[in-house]
Every structure is written in C-alpha cells, then in structure tokens.
Amino acid sequence: MELFDTHTHMDAPQFDGDREEAIHRALEQGVTRMINIGFNRETIPTTMKLAESYDFIYAAVGWHPQDAITMKEEDLDWIAELCKHEKVVAIGEIGLDYYWDTSPKDVQHEVFRKQIRLARELKMPICIHNREAHEDVVRILREEKANEIGGVMHSYSGSWEIAKMCLDLGFHLSFGGPITFKNAKQPKEVLAKTPMDRLLIETDSPYLTPHPFRGKRNESGHVRLVAEAAAELKGVSLEEIAEITTRNALERFGIL
C-alpha cells in the first residue's frame, strides 16, 4: 500500500528535534511520497532543502496570503526560477485568508492573481489556501482562467456548492484531519460526494492533527488515519483509497 501526503510542512520548527525520525515514521505507515510546502521567504529555502535531501519528498513554492503584504516582484521571479527545479511540482500555497488579519484583502487579491498568471505562464498546477474567502477565491480563479492549469483545493472546508464550482474549474479536492473529527459534518459530506478521480488526502502537518491525536503535533505518517476515514466515508477499503488518491496525486502533479 502506498500513501501520498499531498500537503505537509515537515520543515516546520516543530520538527527540529526529530525531523528524520518523523519522516521515517511516515515511511513505516506506508507514505511513499509527500509534497512539502514553501510559502514565504523563510520556508521556501527549507522546503527546497528537504526536497533535495529525500527522493520521495517533492516541493510546492508560493506566497501565502497571510504573507502577501511582504511579497516583492523579485520574490515572484524567485518562484518562477525555482519552478524549473525537477522537484518543484506546483505553485502554492496561494489564495486568500480572511480569518487572519495580516494582509489587506486588496493586497491578497493582487498577489493571488499574479501567482495564478505565473502558473498559467509556466503551466504549473496551483495549491489553493482558502480560509473564509470561498466566493472571492472562486471568482478570482474564474477571472484568471485557472481552469487552464487546475490544481488542488488544499484542506477543503467549504460547502458542496462551492466544491462543485471548484470541480467545474478542474480542481481536485484535498482532505485532511478534520474528516476524522466527530463534529465535522460538512467536510465529511463533501468528501462523500467528491468524485473518486478528484480526491486527494493530506495532513497539513504539523497542523490539523487527526483523531485520536487531536491537540498534539501532526506529522505526515498520520495521513494513514485520513485515508482510513476517507475509505469509511466512501465505503471502500483502505487499500483502494490509497491506490486511487496516490494515482490522482501522481497525475495531478505530473510525477512520473
């Protein structure tokens, strides 16, 4: 059985004491590939180092909406240059975040649009961060013709109505720890309706830790718990979910 964690932050400081051990634990749980996300000036270099250190770790690079106010033109050029690297498979995570008031909305919109345009130019898929900004995210994706490249709605948390719009734009929906929470009704309902060929799984470690480890640090090996919950919601075996979501990820990110 092969599992693919499509969104993790194993370069985060929370792993400074046992990063190698945590990565080894993921391998023991059946995780054969993961995509680490570099999302600002600090995490892009550590993400690239991780991807270059492990054959099975890939990288996505982009500018997070919370950091949008810090982005300069040279940062966009930097992302474009890094996209030539064989281990970089997506631009992300990019998008909008209306929960944290760290960057003005108009700045977030501008940075989001610039990165979608870059992704279209480079023909790279995009990884979308969307927190409490569903309508604006979909609107901007449409206006910037993101359907030409597609990508992933990371840690999807919206309604089925919004999900259908994202699917119509050619995006995959990725689910993490919340689908294991007893009270997380909406993500479970959306996952159950998501077509199998558009389904991905992730951890977003060290955040969004699945049950029964909720409240503790998350790590990539816990994607197995996400896969188990997805299998139950879909009424299929763990092995089938692992096979389908891994195949979907390989195709979506163009990994041979």
Cα-atom radius of gyration:
17 Å
**Describe the biggest sheet?**
8 strands, parallel
- Computed structural class: alpha/beta
Topology, number of strands: 8
Structure characteristics:
hydrolase; 8 strands; alpha/beta; metal-binding; Metal_Hydrolase; 256 residues; DNase_TatD-rel_CS
Structure, explained:
Helices cover 41% and strands 18% of the residues. The protein has 256 residues and is α/β, with parallel strands linked by helices. The chain has an eight-stranded parallel β-sheet with strand order 1-2-3-4-5-6-7-8. Strand 2, helix 2 and strand 3 form a beta-alpha-beta unit. Helix 8 crosses helix 9. This is Hydrolase TatD. Keywords: Hydrolase, Metal-binding. One of its GO terms (molecular function) is hydrolase activity.
Give a quick precis of the structure.
With 256 residues, the protein is α/β, with parallel strands linked by helices. It is built from 9 helices and 8 strands.
Lay out the secondary structure.
Blueprint: E1 3-8, H1 19-28, E2 31-38, H2 43-53, E3 57-61, H3 73-82, E4 88-97, H4 105-122, E5 126-131, H5 134-143, E6 151-153, H6 160-168, E7 171-175, H7 185-193, E8 199-201, H8 223-234, H9 238-252
Parallel strand pairs: 1-2, 2-3, 3-4, 4-5, 5-6, 6-7, 7-8
Organism: Paenibacillus vini
GO molecular function: hydrolase activity
Pfam families: TatD_DNase
